[in-house]
Amino acid sequence: MDGKIINNDVRVRSHIEATFAGHQLEVCGLKWSASGQQLASGGNDNLLYTRDRSMISMHSCSQWLHRLKDHSAGVRVHAWCPFQHNLLASGGGGTDCCIKFWTTHTGACLDSVDTGSHVCALLWNKNERELLSSHGSMQNQLFGSIHH
After folding, report:
1. Which terminus of the chain, N or C, has fewer Cβ atoms within 10 Å?
2. What share of the chain is helix, strand, coil (3-state, %, to 5)?
């Protein structure tokens, strides 16, 4: 696996806009921020990358804004906060079992919550300040979390 991300614009004949390098293993998830300004990618290499659209060019394809490496297992899911544009939540699989909250202004981890099981999905509530997560536990639980 090469861990590359290819950004395509299918409206034009030469549709490849950029190819991003960084991940050493499979890319598990991609998510543009609501503004379309930042791209987050999580991978089986336990890394979460953020890229800013203003830094993307054909000649600078390995350029990333932040390389976030606090997860101890693959970063399977991530979600941009709808009410705070620089807040990103990420969920680790397997042995990690944590939901981490990041600021993309600095790349700092603001908080980490050990859920006790593989994080399978994250979804921000658009009307309240809460995050819903699903897990790979025996009880198939759903948890709600309020982040201030």
Report:
1. C
2. 0, 45, 50
Candidates 133, 130, 136; CA nearest to 148 is 130
Considering only CA atoms, which of 93, 6, 102, 104 is closest in space to residue 56? 6
The pLDDT score that the predictor gives to residue 59 is 47
112-121 CB burial, b ≥16 within 10 A, e <16:
ebebebbbee
Q: What is the pTM of this model?
A: 0.83
Q: Tell me how crowded residue 53 is: count the other CB atoms within 10 A of its CB.
A: 14
Eight-class DSSP state of 67:
E
Report the Cα–Cα distance between both ends of the chain, in Å, rounded: 38
> What tens digit of pLDDT does each residue of 49-58 get?
998 887 765 5
Single-letter amino acid, residue 32: W
Q: Write the pLDDT tens digit of every residue in 3-39.
A: 777 777 788 888 777 777 777 788 788 899 999 899 9
